[in-house]
Structure formats: structure tokens, C-alpha cells
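Example record

One chain of 216 residues, shown exactly as stored in the release files.
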Amino acid sequence: MDRNDPAYRGQSDYSPALLRLYDPLVLGPISRFVWRFPMEEHGHFYPEHIRPNHLDVGPGTGYFLEHSGLPDGSKVTILDPNANVLRYVKRRLRRLDVTAVEADVLKPLPMPGPFDSVGLSMVMHCLPGPMERKAIAIDNIARVMAPGGVLFGASVLGPSAPHTRLGRAFLWAFNRRGAFSNLDDTEAGLHEILGRWFHNVEIKTVGGIAVFVATN
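Predicted C-alpha cells for this chain:
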């Protein structure tokens, strides 16, 4: 990704070193104590909604895909603009049939689909705001989904969410760094941009994080 691209800062920190630390640090104490969203709750979300022929946008380390319950050999497509992420996840998910696509979800996606499920987990808060710009990602995803497919994920909300003092400190620090761009992100705003494409949208806020499922 070009360094001048508005989305560059949100993905640039994912070096091989950070990816090795991500599970024990970000999915552990940061998730539990900063965002008050225990990894166990997030982990149950994937097996509940994932389907064969799945697309994962911003797969992180592949932790949730690894524990999703997909049978060996299942077809999974992972999409991320960061080659470090794609290499790391492909190595981790050797038991699955993984296709890696280096692309930006804010641009038209280079594969036609259709996909039966799409994971968009902990991605939206990294995309450059405001919410209207982030809506482009939902548009691009919806265009490669099967008509009966399900889009599910989670995202850290901005100051409108019931963050603790610690959560707000992390929120402002990550936004100053450019790793996050979510100070305008609200549950209502997320519901609105999902509702442009999906008839059924369910969102609940757990700690400082919005968890969503969109179908039909």
C-alpha cells in the first residue's frame, strides 16, 4: 500500500514482530481489561456464524479462523493490504485451503465471490474515517457476497461507547498514532451503513466494542 494512502497508517504496524505478540497481548489483557471484551466471547462468535466458502477481511493472526471449527481442507479467502499478515495467516492455517489476496477493502475487491460468510473482525476502527468513508468497505464486501450470506464482526467504538478511563486513554493514544481512526464511530452509525445493504442488522455493544451480524 502506498504510504500516502489514507488507509496506510491503520495497517502499517503489523510487522512480523507484532504478529508474534498479538495473541498474548492484544487478544489477552488489552481485549479483556482495556476494551472489556474477553477473547472467549469473541471466539464463540466465529463458530456460530462462519460458513463454508468464507472470506476473512483483515484476518489478524488467523487466531479466530484457526478456532472457528471449519473442517480440514475448507476453502477460506483472506484479504489484507499487509503482506506480513497474509504470510503469517497462511502458515498458521495450513490445514485449510487458503487463498491470500493482497488488497484494500476500501477499493473494489479483485475477486468475484460469491462468499457465503464474511468476517470483518476488529477492522472498521482501523479504516480511515469518517463513517461515510468506511461505508465503502461495506459496499465492496456486499458486492462479493452470496444473497443469503452473513457478514459478522466487531469494532472498537469511539468516545460515545461506555469506555473506562483506561479505555479512553488507549482510544486517544491509538488515534493520535494513526493506528485507529474511530473517534466518530458510533453504534448508530455502524447500523446505518450496514442497513444500506442488509435487511437484518443486529448490533450489541460489549464494553467498548460493537459486535454485529448482518444478513439478507
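Notes: The helical segments are 8-11, 16-34, 39-49, 63-66, 83-92, 131-142, 165-177, 187-195.
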